[in-house]
Write a structure and sequence with these properties.
33% of the residues lie in helices and 21% in strands. The radius of gyration is 21 Å and the shape is elongated. It has two domains: 101 residues, Ribosomal protein L30/S12 (60s Ribosomal Protein L30, Chain: A); 146 residues, SPOUT methyltransferase, trefoil knot domain (Alpha/beta knot). It is of the alpha/beta class. The longest helix is centred in the C-terminal third of the chain and has 16 residues. It has ten helices and twelve strands. Strands 8-7-6-11-9-12-10 form a seven-stranded parallel β-sheet, sandwiched between helices. A five-stranded mixed β-sheet has the order 1-4-3-5-2, sandwiched between helices.
Length: 268
């Protein structure tokens, strides 16, 4: 049975708003929200468990929720919200066709043995949720095997990460740990660890990339710190020919990964 919710003051609505806004509340509840059909379908196809589904019949143009999301498990608890209530729980008060309530999952580094990783992207102290989501799209497009968050300043389950990843949030393998744990894991995985910096000693097109490798990208504000500088195998940089002293983190990541692929995949 589908329960109808009219009021923006309904406890369910308030619960979803808190999950959207508060990282602390998401961690306490072990839940986060996913907005929109594409993102919900991506969760379902990746085998993630959706606790509850919220939609507005007023926004579905006369089709049923079963027609709208044909892969939805009929046992999932479902709520039909008024458009005002959907506005309340949605990003920038712009009502989505559906919102899913999803359990968080473990981001712990897996056992490094027999993973067969050829290319790992490490994001050190990443600060902006939108950047992280966009980089997940870039990493997927560039064939990255896994993304590892090192001392991340971003809550991975922030709605902006989900939204910016354009549905790839659930399918890309993502792990998280401290710098020390991440570096130990990379070594156990037998990956050559490369760092990126505007002060790098060699431009990416002059550097010889080999598989397997891990490429470490620094934070938006400070780049790579002393820990990585003393532990990596090499420091590379992107040549810049204009007045800009740096690139957006996602753009820089794309440049490095593209050059890695140009050298390693074109010769396969």
């Amino acid at each position: 049975m589908i329960e109808r919710i009219e009021s923006t003051s309904n406890p369910k609505v308030k619960h979803l708003v808190r999950l959207r806004k508060s990282s602390r509340y998401r961690k306490e509840m072990g839940l986060f929200i996913v907005e929109g059909k594409r993102e919900i379908e991506a969760m379902l196809s990746s085998g993630k468990f959706i606790e509850e589904l919220y939609f507005s019949n007023e926004l579905l143009d006369g089709i049923s929720i079963a027609q709208f999301l044909p892969n939805l498990n009929e046992k999932i608890t479902t709520f039909d919200l008024s458009q005002l209530a959907m506005n309340k729980i949605s990003y920038r008060n712009q009502a989505k066709d559906a919102v899913g309530l999803v359990k968080v999952w473990d981001l712990a580094l897996p056992n490094s043995h027999n993973l067969g990783l050829e290319l790992v992207l490490v994001l050190d102290e990443i600060e902006k949720p939108g950047n992280l989501g966009a980089i997940l799209r870039t990493a997927d497009a560039m064939g990255v095997d896994a993304v590892v968050l090192s001392d991340s300043c971003v809550d991975f389950f922030n709605p902006n990460v989900v939204r910016s990843s354009m549905g790839l949030f659930a399918s890309m393998p993502v792990f998280s740990g401290t710098k020390e744990n991440v570096f130990h894991w990379l070594n156990e995985s037998k990956l050559k660890v490369l760092g990126t910096s505007s002060k790098g000693t060699e431009f990416i097109h002059n550097f010889t990339f080999d598989k397997p490798a891990a490429i470490v990208m620094g934070s938006e504000s400070h780049g790579l710190g002393s820990f990585w500088a003393k532990n990596i195998s090499g420091m590379i940089s992107i040549p810049l020919y204009g007045r800009a002293s740096s690139l957006n983190l996602n753009c820089a990541t794309a440049c490095v990964l593209m050059e890695f692929n140009r050298q390693t995949k074109c010769t396969d």
